[in-house]
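Subject: complex prediction, re-run

Hi both,

The earlier run crashed halfway through, so I resubmitted it with identical inputs.
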Amino acid sequence: MAVGLGPLPTLHPVAGFELGIASAGIKRPGRKDIVVMRCAEGSTVAGVFTLNAFCAAPVILAKQRVQGAVRYLLTNTGNANAGTGEPGLVAAARTCARLAELAGVDANAVLPYSTGVIGEPLPVEKIEGALQAALDDLSVDNWAAAAAGIMTTDTLPKGASRQFQHDGVTVTVTGISKGAGMIRPNMATMLGYIATDAKVSRDVLQNLLLDGANKSFNRITIDGDTSTNDCCMLIATGQAKLPEISETSGPLFAALKQAVFEVCMEVAQAIVRDGEGATKFVTVEVNGGGTHQECLDVGYTVAHSPLIKTALFASDPNWGRILAAVGRAGVVDLDVSKIDVFLGEVCIASRGARAATYTEEQGAAVMAREEIIIRIELGRGACRETIWTTDLSHEYVKINAEYRT
Amino acid sequence: MAVGLGPLPTLHPVAGFELGIASAGIKRPGRKDIVVMRCAEGSTVAGVFTLNAFCAAPVILAKQRVQGAVRYLLTNTGNANAGTGEPGLVAAARTCARLAELAGVDANAVLPYSTGVIGEPLPVEKIEGALQAALDDLSVDNWAAAAAGIMTTDTLPKGASRQFQHDGVTVTVTGISKGAGMIRPNMATMLGYIATDAKVSRDVLQNLLLDGANKSFNRITIDGDTSTNDCCMLIATGQAKLPEISETSGPLFAALKQAVFEVCMEVAQAIVRDGEGATKFVTVEVNGGGTHQECLDVGYTVAHSPLIKTALFASDPNWGRILAAVGRAGVVDLDVSKIDVFLGEVCIASRGARAATYTEEQGAAVMAREEIIIRIELGRGACRETIWTTDLSHEYVKINAEYRT
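This time it finished cleanly. Structure:
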């Protein structure tokens, strides 16, 4: 049911970054559920992680270890290893230690990532049994297979790739992501991996990732449920024959930033397009806010309203529900007589009431589209924020009522 | 699909408070959609109203007029007269003026209430045409008919009644409510009317209503969508042969407060039991909070999580989703190792991880029930809060996707 999401685009290989896929049979025998990624020696790695206080064991370990030298990322689907307490940490550390042993690196150089059911013990032996096969499979050309290997309730793999030239050298940024439910990332998404062959120091890389994630992964929501396992990683292998890039590198830094930003945005929006049960891709623009926070408050209130989401599903221009959501968003001293609301190009509410020019036919025409923009003009200031979300369909209920069966 | 909600209990008449029902054909010909209530001269009236900034025209008028002498409450269903701007205010005032004219009272003594679709013009002539019939129908014995007359997507009428004796005099408190969707009252519920024949000054009455609503109407949520039209009214006709009741009236005040509180709670919980598509009645208890606000933040995050609500619908003890919701509720410095979570009497998570004693069978047995208690022990302090909510079913999506068709 993915909205406007086709087959994977070409995912350019990134020199110094290899991916290997294997099957551990965690949830179903034969399913590709293990992805190992190898970063060339000297790579720098940045990460952003969920702010959920119940963050999963692998998130705790990955957060610690990303501070040191990173060589391998080990991802499993089918089990989130969250809500598993101390035994969960031991289990995550064991799988990393086994991979380190097989690969001949320090155990702390392996970072774990898990996604799947919360609260069940990680099947350590199954994962360990699949590691050699994943190592044997390592290749720079495996991005598409890895994008498929990290899927859970996703219906399509998600990836994006950009290249730019500098001094005759081609620089590549490629990324993949997964996630379709429990999506309201807070500092990161369910799982995202982006790699570049540029040479970038860890601090600069971390800032690049924070900036990129903040306007992409951190602005999407499907059901408002921030996951326990959100992680997004940015790896720079430094294999492109260019000097190290920093904020003072002028056009080179700007080009890299732009490429990272575009890849973040494309794979983040792909998660929304493939949202559980999604039939619409919805952009909520809030302009004219006094602060960024009040724009976000209004945007998320609209994006999370079950009444608006069901109206979107029904293609029903029930715009009163949008007004009601704006009104309850908690904006202090909100003057409704200054508010305009647009559905696509159609003004539905002007100065806080039904626009004189509005007809039900105009609203219905916009709502019939697969991609819909809801624009709210608060008339309070110059701040603006944009959020991307989906509708709420029968299929969403079905998927989540039957998730574990 | 109402959960544990049977036929209306006996609703004792309240001396000095009459109700009349009529049909204006607002949405469908012949449907009872007008309720007029008459308060005897000398009655005091208190009200709490939605905090939604887009509050409806009738709410604006009722809020102003409740400060003066109140004689009539005029309710229509089928049209919320919200998002209608200045013309909406004029329309509401016109219907009140017509009722005042027919009844021979001051126009400001009539308070309007509307519920239904947002953003459509109020059909003033239709309403005006039904007012005489409603006045002709006025009777103290009409509570049950009025409870049915204010329904919209409700499947059952909602009411409660209490009586107590003082110095050989019987005091009555009777109330009705409506609402099944767009329910997360903020200072009031969709619509609630409670009357007593006790004699109570306006200030004391307002405090009684605030206290009662705060622990009942303001603690229920179905979909998190605070309505534009929430109102709850408490009327004291003073017809019982007892002195005026105030906070210093000792046991008499305590008995009245208890009766008002119980009626508030019963009709508020009835709204949840009849929640759109509800198959479960869910109590979320949050104990051991450092502040009341953090208990509410945790409780509402759990109560609004689409993932928890769909798991409740599926009777799936997917308790990891509860942990994830607690973890993202925004409680500062939350120490997950102090948190216990119970499903009914079953400890599912202890010190932040799956309880050693927990089995899936225990969880499944609790989830199979129609009435479920989720208890979260934060281990941070002595504050506690309780919230009541429902599950999220296919029926909810169906009802709200098809509301206007």
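Residues 237 and 248 of chain B are 20 Å apart (CA to CA).

- K.
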